[in-house]
Amino acid sequence: SRRAPSPPAEDTPASPAPPATEPAVPSAPPMPAGAEAPAAQDAMPEALASALSHIVGQLDVLTETMRLLEERLTMNEDKTNKVVQIIGAAAEASEA
Predict the structure, then answer these.
(1) How far is CA 92 from CA 60, 79, 80, in A?
(2) CA dist 79 → 4, 14, 22, 44 (Å)
(3) Which of 24, 48, 64, 69 is the most exposed place for a label (fewest CB within 10 A)?
């Protein structure tokens, strides 16, 4: 079963999402002089355009999910480091 990622904790500021950039699409090679492209190749078939649009939408969701996971991982690493520091300070205090 799939679960949506939970939002970040209230005590940490949410970092802005990185700007989405469109990947460069290579252009078609130039047509030989006097040749005409068939009309069917001029426009992308609607089914292909729809499928590609759906894939892009899924990739956007995946990108946002990965951003949230990275944010949560960083938050947990920071909290773990604080716990390690507290334990280290307590150990030093008990030795003194």
Answers:
(1) 48, 20, 18
(2) 23, 16, 36, 50
(3) 24
CA dihedral 56, 60, 65, 66 (to 10 degrees): 90
Q: Where are the alpha helices (DSSP H) in the chain?
A: 39-42, 46-95
pLDDT digits (tens, 9 = 90+) for 6-61: 554 444 444 455 555 555 555 655 656 665 555 555 578 999 999 999 999 999 99
Within a 10 A sphere around the Cβ of 82, how many other Cβ atoms? 10
Q: Tokens 């590609």 correspond to what residue?
A: 52
Residue 18's nearest CA partner among 87, 84, 70, 91 is: 70
At 45, which amino acid appears? P
